[in-house]
C-alpha cells in the first residue's frame, strides 16, 4: 500500500500505539462462531444521531440474523487513525469515508470496488448523481453515499422586513444590493462569510477557471481571482460582509443566530442548530444566488466504503446495501440531521417540499461536491492560508493566490 505517504512517521508510531492500547480487534474476530461478526468504524455524533445509527444497525441485525455488527467509534483524528489501522491490518470491514478524502484512499488500493456486488434490487440511479460520482474512480464505484448537505442562503425574515426587502436575493448582484440595506455599521452585517475554499469552490470556478487541473493547483489564474474578488470587495470596500470571528462568534450559524449577520450560507446542520440554540429567530432558506447567471452551491457527502482486506466481504456488502438502501437510509435521515442521498427517500420524507430543507435538496443536482482529486487537501491548506490574508486586506488577492499556488505545487511534487 501507498498509505504511508499520508501519515507522518511520528504520527504513525503514536497512532499505532494508541490502537494497540485500545485493544482493537481484527475485523471479523468473533466470540460466537455461528455468526459472522463485522466491524463498522465511524466518527461520533450527537445523542440523537447515535440513537438513530443504533436503531438502523439493530434493524439490520434483525433482518440478517447471521451477521453481528460491532460499531467502533473513532472520536479524534478519524482519518489518521483509519489510515494507520489500514496499514496495520486492523481496520474495520466497513467505514465512513468523506468524499474529500476518497480519492487519496482509493489511490492506495485500500478500498474494495463495489460494482460486482450490486444487484438489480439496489437502485443505483436513485442516488443524487453528484454525490454518487464523488466515490467513483475510473468508472468504478468505491463507496455509496449515506447522506449529504448542500449550502443554502439562510436569511433573517425580520431584518428583511425592516429593510423593506420582499424576499431573498436570486442573483449575486441582488445579494450585494440587499447586503448594503441590511448592514448596520459593525453591529449587523448583511452577509456572514467563511473565507475558505471549501465554501467558495463553486464560486471560484464560476468564470471558467479551475482550482485544480491534473492534480496541480491552478487557482492563481485571472479567472479565479476575478470570480472571488466580489467576496473581498464586500468585506473591504462596502463593509457589508464579515466572518464570524470578527464579531466574536464561533461559526457562521452562531453569527446568524446572534443577529450579527442578516444572511449566511450554511448547510442542513444549521437547521437543528437554530432550533436548539436560537429558536426565537424567524428565518427562511433559499437556493444560493446565481453567479453569472448560473446556479451553484457546494455539497458535502460521506459514504460507506469496504476494506479491501476484509475477510467478510459478502457480509460487509450486505451491511452497506442495507445502510444505503431505501429502508436503512429512511431511518437514518428521518429526524432531519442529515439529508438522504436517495431521491426517493427525500421525497418520501417530504424534504424536497419542506420550507427549510427544500432549497438544500434542490441544490443537490447541480452542486459542486467538495472533492477534486487526491491533492485537494494540500491545495486547500495553502489556498486558505493565503486567501485569508487577502480577505483581511493584508495583501492583494492575485499576489496571495500566486504565492499559495507556488507553495501548494511544491508540496504536491514532494508528496508524489
Q: Classify the secondary structure makeup into a structural class.
A: alpha/beta
Name the average pLDDT: 92
Poorly predicted regions = 4-31
| Ends apart, CA distance between termini | 14 Å
Q: Please state the second-level CATH architecture of the largest domain.
A: 3-Layer(aba) Sandwich
Let me know the CATH homologous superfamily of the largest domain: Periplasmic binding protein-like II
Helix percentage:
40-55%
DSSP strand count: 15
Shape field: globular
**Within the CATH hierarchy, at the fold level, what is the topology of the largest domain?**
D-Maltodextrin-Binding Protein, domain 2
Strand content: 15-25%
Number of helices: 17
The main sheet comes to: 6 strands, mixed
CATH class of the largest domain: Alpha Beta
- Measured on Cα atoms, how large is the radius of gyration? 22 Å
| Number of discrete domains | 2
Keywords: Signal, Transport
Organism: Fictibacillus solisalsi
Family: Belongs to the bacterial solute-binding protein 1 family.
Pfam families: SBP_bac_1
